[in-house]
Amino acid sequence: MAATLVLILIPCYILWKITEGQYTPMKYGHVKPGYHMDGDFMIGGIVTISNLMISEPLSYTAFPTWNQDCIYYAENYFDYLAFVSAVEEINNSSELLSNITLGFHLYESYRNSFFAFGAAMSIITGMDIWVPNYRCKTSGTLAAIIEGLQSEESRQMSNMFRMYHYPQISFISQSLLMSDTFKFPFFYRTVPSELHLCAGIVSLLKHFHWTWIGIIAPDDESSLRMLQILREEIEQNGGCTAFIETFSGSNLHHYLKNIHFKNNLDEEIFFNENRELNTDYNIINVACLPNGEQHREIVGSYNPYVSQGQDFIINEKAIVWDSTFSQTPPQAKCSESCPPGFMKLTRKGKPICCFDCIPCPQGEISNQSDMDNCMKCQEDHWSNHKRDTCIPKLIIFLSYEEALGMALTTSSIFFSFINAIILGILIHYRDTPIVRANNRDISYILLISLMICFLCSLIFIGRPEPVTCILRQTTFGMIFSISLSSILAKTITVVMAFHATKPGSKLRKWMGSRISYTIILSCSLFQFTLCLIWLFTAPPFPYHNMQSETGAIVIECNEGSMIAFYCVLGFLGFLAGISFITAFLSRNLPDSFNEAKYITFSMLVFCIVWITFIPTYLSTRGKYMVAVEIFAIQASSAGLLGCIFMPKCCIILLRPDMNSRKYLTKKELK
Asked: Which segments cross the bilayer (predicted)?
C-alpha cells in the first residue's frame, strides 16, 4: 500500500515541478494581479474597472484612429467597491451568516479575453499560478464566481465553471444564448436578456420617430442572434436598417436558484424561471463636459415586466444633446415624413423607409402622416383641395338663383304675359271677322294651353322633389297634346268646311264645333291614358347622380321609364306630323282668313325644335338636360304662338281695314 502511494506521489511531484516552471504568475504591468481576502467560503470576482476614453472629440466624419490621445480611467471603480463592501457587510452581520466568513478573489479583466481567462484560472486554482484541474489552496471553499464580462467571454467562462459545478453570476452578460438552462445549468445573471433590450431599443426609436437605423455590434454568436431579432423588431415597427456593421471583439446551486430577498432600497431580488433578475433598463444620457469629463444622467427607463404603456418612460427635457444638434433630437430618416394629403410610394430597389410622397388622387384622402395608402371618401363626399379631409359633395340642380335659372324663368313669364295679351286682344275683338272666321273657341283653348305650356316650364326649375318629378313630364305631355290637338282640329275643320260646300257632300252633317271638340278630347284622353300607365308602372322620382360631375351630386329627376317618356313624346310628334301634313295640303284652299299657311310654318318650327332636342338632350348631363328641355318647350310654344296668332294681332291692331265685312266682300269679288 505504501509503495503504491509513493508511486502515485512521485509523478504528482514531478508534474508539480514541471507546472511550477511553466506557469508563471500573471503580470499586468503596474496593476496589482488581484485582491484577495481569506474566508470559509470564497467568492471569485472578475470585473472591469478601467475604461478607455479618447481625449479629443470625435468628428463623426471618419473612423477614430489610435493616434489620438487615449486615457484610461476607473469608470467602474464603484462596482469594485460595492463588491468588497457587500462581502464586508455580510461578514459583519450576525444575522446573515453566523460563524461563517466570506472571502473573495477579485481580479481585473482589462476588457481582454486573455486576462479574463487567466483570472478565471487563478480563481479556480486558488492562487495566481495556473494549475488546471487543481485546487492548490484549501483554506476556503469556492462557492461562486461573480463576473462582469461581456457576453462572449461570459459564455466561455461558463463552460469552464460548469465542469466544476461552480455557480456563475453575471451582472453584464445579456446574451440570449445564456437563457438556455439546459446548456448553462449553473449560470445566473442580474440583468435581463437581450430580448428585452431589443424591445427597449425599439421603443426608444419609436419615441423619436427614428426609422433609418444603423447597427454596430460585436461579431459573436450572441450578438448576431440579437442583431437578427433587433432587425426584425425594427422592420415590424416600420423602420429600416441603413447598415449593419460587426466587429471582433454546484452545492450552493439550489440555494442560489431559490434566492429571494429585499435590498436596502426595498427592491425584491430574485431570479425568474430563466435565472434572470427581473429588472429594468436605465436610459443614460452621456454629456461630454468642456474639461473632457463625462457626465452621465438617467433620463428614462424601460421595464419589460410592467404593463404596456408604462414600460417605456423618458424625460426629454433632461436630455443634453450634442452641440451639433442644437438641443433638438437628431433625425434618422431616409425620407422626410409625408404630410396629410400625401401617401408613401416606396422607391424602386430601396427599403420601405426610402419613399417619395405623392398626392392622393381625387376623391381620396390621407388624414395622418406617412400613410401607405389613401382612403376613399364616401360616395356622397369628396376630398378637399388639400386631400386631407372628406367634405360633402356640392349639390347641383337648376335653381332660380343662378343666372340660367333666372333667364329661363324670365322668358317663361315674358312669353306667358305676351300670350295673355294676345288672348285679351282676341277676346276684345271676338266679334270681328278675322276672329270669328278661325274658330274663336278653339283659338281660346289653344292660347290657354300655350300659356300653361309656358308656365309649366317653371316646374322644371328648382330642387327636384317627388311631386315635381311626377308633374314635370306628365303636365308637359298633357298640355302640349291639348295644344297640338287644337291645331289639328283647326286644320281638319278648314278641310271639312271646304269639302262640305260642294253639292251633295256628306260632310255637311259633321260640320260644327262638335267635331273639333271631339278631336281635342279624344287626343287628350289618349295622352292622359299614356301618362296614367307611366305613373302606375314606373313613375319619375328624384335621383342623386354622383357620376355625371366630378366632386358634385346632381339632383335630377329620373324618368322611371324612358320607354313611357318617349311614347309621350312620340304621340306629340304624331299629332304635330298629322297637323303639319293636313295644314300643308290645305294651305291653298280659297278662304279669306285661311290660317293653314301659318299653321304649316308653325308646325315646321315645332318639328325642327323637337327633332333638334332629342340628340341635344341625350348628349347633355345634369342641370343642362333640364335647361335643354325647358328651352325646347318655350321655343316650340313661342313658335306656335308667333306663327299662328301674331299675323291676326297685326291685322287687328295695325290694319283694321282688313278686319271688316266690306274688305272680305271686295276680296271675294276679286
From this structure: 403-429, 441-462, 474-498, 519-543, 563-586, 598-618, 630-654
